[in-house]
Amino acid sequence: MGMTTKNETDAGLATGSQVETAQPPHAAKAPDPLMAPGQPRHSGETVLSVEHLSKTIRGRRIIDDISFDVRAGEVYGFLGPNGSGKTTTIRMLVDLIKPTSGRVLVCGEDVSKHPERALRHVGSIVENPEMYGYLTGWENLDLFARMQDGIGEERIAEVARIVRMDERIHDKIKTYSLGMRQRLGIAQALLGSPKLLILDEPTNGLDPKGIKELRAFIRELAGQGMSVFVSSHLLSEIQLLCDRVAIIDGGRIIATGNVHELIAQAEAYTLWLFEDAEAGLALLSQDARVAITTDRDLASIDEAVLSALPGAIATRIRQEDVAGVVASCAEAGVGVLAVQRVVPTLETLFLALTGGDPYAS
Amino acid sequence: MHRNLELIRNETIKVWKKKRFAVIVLILLVLVPVFVYAQMKIAQNSASKFTDWRSELRQRITDNTNALSSDRIPEEWKKWRVALVQQLQYYLDHDVNPNTPNAVRFTNTFLQNAVGLFIPLMVLAVASDIVSSERSGGTIKMLLTRPVRRWRILASKLVTLTLYVSLIIVATAAVSYLVSGLVFGYGGWREPVFVGFRLQGSNMDTSSVHAVPQGVFMLMQLGLVWFSAMTVAVIAFMVSVLVRSTAASLVTMMAAVISGSILANMASSWHSAKYLFNVNLDLSVYLQGSPPPIEGMTLGFSLIVLAVWALAAIGVSFAVFTRQDILA
User: Fold this and answer.
1) A278 touching B, CB under 8 A?
2) pTM
3) In chain A, where the domains are located
4) Is the ipTM of this complex over 0.90?
5) Pairing mode, if any, of strands A227-232 and A75-79?
6) Most exposed among A96, A251, B51, B256, judged by the fewest C-beta atoms under 10 Å?
7) Kind and range of the H or E element at A89?
């Protein structure tokens, strides 16, 4: 019995593929199928470099001097409201639109001058994953595989399996749901084992389960060394997914940086809820360690948090002072119902950065 | 080179799977029997009236000559009749029947009538959406973000279009030959046709007339049909690059082709119209020796006009396609 097991294991190690087929397809993770060997993993190498990119269409400057870098193995967010120039920028990244000035380098190759070299390293879905509806999923992938060197049938089968489309791959695209089209679009983008994956609003039209799966999937790809560039108008999405972010508004980059550092830039608030609100307010106002915030500051706190604590007083206070203030409240006989520290969301950060006036709406 | 062949293969697959060619063959299979039936009725009719083709031919010559003396017939039509009468007379003099019913004759006549409108319309079914469908379907984003230069992609589409135009013309001739053969018999390849009639003023110059077998005549005709169909295809190709919507590109080209055949029929005294591509499409008139739609047009002239239009269209297509921003 023991002998048989050992033999099976040995055979599996030798051939690899036999073990895979014996397992459910998505469980097979052993020989990293996503990446060609020898790709960098978190090496810090710059995969995408955008340098002073501008685009003027009919006299209107739609994109104004945008610069940022995406490193190998990171998930880079591109955040901005609708109409801020996200899609135009992405189209310039993949040579659908020629920049008026500035340039885009992918692995050192200028996308506009040598698209045939630069785009070899890029897989992308720009807006919706539109494919030929009168062809099957497989035929579509086959079509795109033929446009690039060294992509054979095995690779097509592999990417179909990676996005778990292998069961429906021989059906016509027009019979697919939006989620399936999205997955096939990703399969198409992965075909050439790109170093950079560009996804434009990838969660559009996906249900919550699909979004969660996609998030995990993107993380996995990044873990294997692929850089993923994700655009979104949803701040929570970027917050959950990305390492670094560029925030764009009105065609200009208003901030770039580490998502968590950017959040730390915005001040945290502490909410206080007392049994007797007036007594509590009087007490806090006298305390030198506490600064009561104005109504205007209050507006940058997530409404959902505020509504969970109606009548709460927002303050700014150093975290280490909180215990002392609570103690002095207890001494003064003012009952504290709740103390909550509120980390600003990217949304509040965005409002602060864009100078958007919440009172306007 | 290998990559180019793969690109052409891709484009060919797309057109094929869209079932465009299948529809064209289906149209031919429905329409050609209708024409064959009509032709059969004509043949039966004249067979019942005339015992001999010579007497039929004499009757036609007399009818047309009589019509010439009428004042109500416009000058251009008279010219056409003069040419016809003299041609018929030539056939009669040389004891050759110009109307023997057989499949090759039918195919030649069908091609003559199809070159101006029918074949261009079928060509448009493929040419009008070969680029615009990628744009209206959004697939152009996938197509142009692959590591292939844009001109290569457009060139592969142009080659594919050429393949399908050739295929359409061969299919038209084949269906017409095969279907009409059922009724008229498959012979007639060696029967003589006279070519080289030249109209000089109101007189027909027959000095350079010589006989060619019908089979050879068909090949000559197919060549000319191909040339005019390719011109239409390439101009439609350009429109397909310029216009995003397939419907708009199809309608534009249909309007151009149809207005050309209307203009040609008006046999206008508007002489500069001869530089328009759409009045030059009917190249088979030169082979038949009928007078051209506008005075001063010759086979060489028409070929040059069509070639200039086609080359300009290719130039515009590539210039626009390789530079244009894909904004939406």
Assistant:
1) no
2) 0.83
3) 46-263, 267-343
4) no
5) parallel
6) B51
7) helix A86-93
